[in-house]
Structure formats: C-alpha cells, structure tokens
Amino acid sequence: MEIERKFLIAKENLPKNLQDYPHHAIEQGYLSSEPVVRIRRQDGQYWLTYKSKGLMVREEYNLPLTEASYLHLREKADGILIVKTRYRIPLPQGLTAELDVFHGKYEGLLLAEVEFDSEEAANRFTPPDWFGEDVTFSSLYHNSTMAYS
Question: Does this model's pTM top 0.70?
Fold first, then answer.
C-alpha cells in the first residue's frame, strides 16, 4: 500500500546545496494508465510497477526487470517518457521528502512526495515552509497523467 501526499515546490524555495542530498536518475514510461502499469529505470535498476486507482492511498506492487526486458517494454510505452532526478531530503519525525526535479517536457516542474505508514499520519502531516501547494488530490500531477498529456 502506498500512502503519500504531494506538493508543488517553487524554485526559490528549494533547499540549499540540493546536490549534497542522495539522488537518483529516473526514467519511466507507462504501458497502461487504467490500471497504471509503469516501467522504471532508476540508476542501474529496472522495475515494472502496478498501481491501483486512488489519490492519496493506492495499492502498489513492484517487480524487478532485467535491462533487456526494460528496453523491450520501453519501446511499447504510450505517451512520453518521464525523466527526472529524485532527491531524498530528510524531514522531522523520520520522514523523507522525495523531491522530483523534472527534465524534458516538464523542465522546471518541482514536486515533493512524502510517504506515510497510515492515512492518519498523512492527514496529520504539517508540511515544512518550503513546500508549496498541496496537490495530493489532483490527478494532474500523477506521472501517469503527465505521460499522456
């Protein structure tokens, strides 16, 4: 189960020394949007992911792929490939902000996601000052929607 909230981030509010945080190069494509079936390359690892419908709470299953399988499926992806750098920024209470800095068609878009153990924890969360608009309940900011628009 994936329980997360998502926020827009303004460029002027980015944490200083962003490059000092752990980060990953991500490329992902979508084989289906309903249900969401995604392929992802993150650094040297490859995954096939299924996500159920939902906004803040969704089922999510990840299965490992080989590089050859990923490349084969990438040719079958619909829409555009989403390319981004994901930074992992520690937050209070043991939480982590996964800050996605998008490239290509979505250059300049900055989104932060925070995952939680429960819906109650997600609902109690007070975002830090550098977070912007809460877009958790907008499907416009799902990468699967962005790939097709």
Answer: yes
Residue 30 is a catalytic residue: yes
CA nearest to 1, candidates 58, 64, 62, 63: 58
CATH topology of domain 2-148: Hypothetical Protein Pfu-838710-001 (2.40.320)
9 contacts 100 by C-beta, under 8 angstroms: no
What digits encode the pLDDT tens for the residues 108-130?
999 999 999 999 999 999 999 99
Cα separation, 98 vs 95, in Å, equals: 10
Which candidate in 30, 46, 106, 141 is catalytic?
A: 30
Give mean pLDDT, residues 126-139. 96
Residues 81-106 have pLDDT tens digits of 999 999 999 999 999 999 999 999 99
Q: 10 Å Cβ neighbour count for 74?
A: 16
Peptide bond into 64 cis (omega under 30): no
110: left (phi over 0), alpha (psi -120 to 50) or beta: beta
